[in-house]
Design goal:
single chain; alpha/beta; Rossmann fold; seven-stranded parallel β-sheet; six-stranded parallel β-sheet
Length: about 375
């Protein structure tokens, strides 16, 4: 049995794939499926260690990004995409998998097109309330479609769409409270707020947090994941901003949080501030209240719709970018942190929103499709 995964461009596409692969490996072991191989085709391995640890064979497939704004790179990326399609066709034909699983994103297009041409069964998963361009196109020939938001079913054929929720990788599922304060060098007697700006960072949120820092650290400890591209600048600015503060040690910026750091941060935090992407499902798995700040110009306005879907579940409060300022962020934090009953209600709602069997459900669906293909 050969299973090929494709997707990428961000951690929001890559890590759910890893979550499905982890469950897939368990299903393969449990069902004693022999001679199984798992492949990942994308323009970047994103996290080579995660692929290696899960026994995944990576092959590079170039992919060009179609930006919704004018950019000279759009022209050159046309040729990158053409090269990717040619290479994907050759590589997919050489592997000839039983199923291709697509997570969406520009990096999955060449491989999904090759699967369509070669008549290989396709299974896709959509993480957002509004599908991206690649998944909308792939849904026309995909045999099965899994979705993270029930409302996304309106965009896909009902007969082959199933609401599974979002797969979350095993190593970050369970927060760790014991030893977290010592590990992160924080005071366990003080409330902690976790600010997650994603793997690429979020400059707007970073800047607002920095402006609000002098007031925030008087009451709270701040764990701030800035994105690797922003950490150097944030560290420099925060040192200047907090130079005369008696509470400068309460601010802990990180470019990237590894799995253990994420679990420790979740274990010690009372509230999370985040974008409205895949991270929301991790927050839901941790059963933590949150303030969600969606990107204004996301494709199909999907982040805003994600955020308000989550808010309607009672799990978060939303601040739109047009309203975001240091004072608005501080007021939202104060309102939530000052109301323990509301925090508890949001925590319960977050737990109900999370679908704990998403990865296993998808993995079993992939195996069923693969076995059908093998026997046909």
């Amino acid at each position: 049995m050969k299973i090929l995964f494709t997707g990428g461009g961000s951690g929001g596409h890559f890590y759910p794939i890893i979550a499905v692969i982890q469950s897939l490996n368990k299903v393969i072991d449990k069902e004693k499926i022999v001679d199984s191989k798992i492949y990942y085709f994308s323009d970047s391995p994103y996290n080579e260690r995660a692929l290696f640890e899960n026994g995944v064979i990576y092959q590079h497939i170039p992919a060009g990004k179609l930006r919704r704004y004018f950019s000279v790179r759009n022209f050159f990326d046309i040729f990158k995409t053409i090269l990717g399609i040619i290479r994907a066709f050759i590589n997919v034909y050489a592997v000839y998998p039983d199923v291709v699983f697509g997570k969406g994103g520009y990096a999955s297009f060449p491989t999904l097109l090759a699967a369509k041409i070669l008549r290989i069964p396709v299974f896709i998963h959509e993480s957002d309330s509004v599908p991206g361009r690649t998944n909308m196109w792939a849904s026309k020939f995909a045999k099965r479609i899994a979705i993270s938001y029930e409302g996304a079913s309106n965009y896909f054929p009902k007969e082959k769409t199933v609401y599974t929720g979002q797969p979350v990788r095993e190593e970050i599922l369970v927060p760790i409270e014991e030893g977290a304060s010592s590990y992160l060098n924080l005071d366990p007697s003080l409330p902690t707020i976790l600010i997650i700006c994603g793997s690429q960072g979020a400059e707007l949120i970073n800047n607002v947090v920095l402006d609000a820092l002098p007031d925030l650290v008087t009451k709270y400890q701040i764990i701030h994941q800035t994105g690797n591209n922003n950490i150097e600048n944030v560290e420099k600015l925060s040192k200047v901003i907090l130079e005369n503060s008696n509470y400068k040690e309460r601010y802990r910026p990180f470019g990237y949080l590894n799995a253990l750091s994420v679990r420790m941060s979740a274990g010690i935090s009372s509230l999370v501030v985040s974008r409205a992407g895949s991270t929301m499902f991790e927050i839901a798995a941790w059963k933590l209240p949150s303030i969600v700040i969606p990107i204004t110009d996301s494709n199909g306005d999907h982040q805003r719709k994600n955020a308000f879907n989550y808010a309607r579940a009672g799990a978060c409060t939303v601040i739109e970018e047009s309203n975001l300022s240091p004072s608005v962020l501080k007021a939202a934090i104060e309102k939530l942190m000052g109301n323990k009953e509301l925090l508890k209600t949001m925590s319960v709602a977050a737990g109900k929103f999370y679908q704990p069997n998403a990865a296993e459900t998808i993995a079993r669906g992939i195996v069923e499709m693969a076995l059908e293909h093998e026997s046909s």
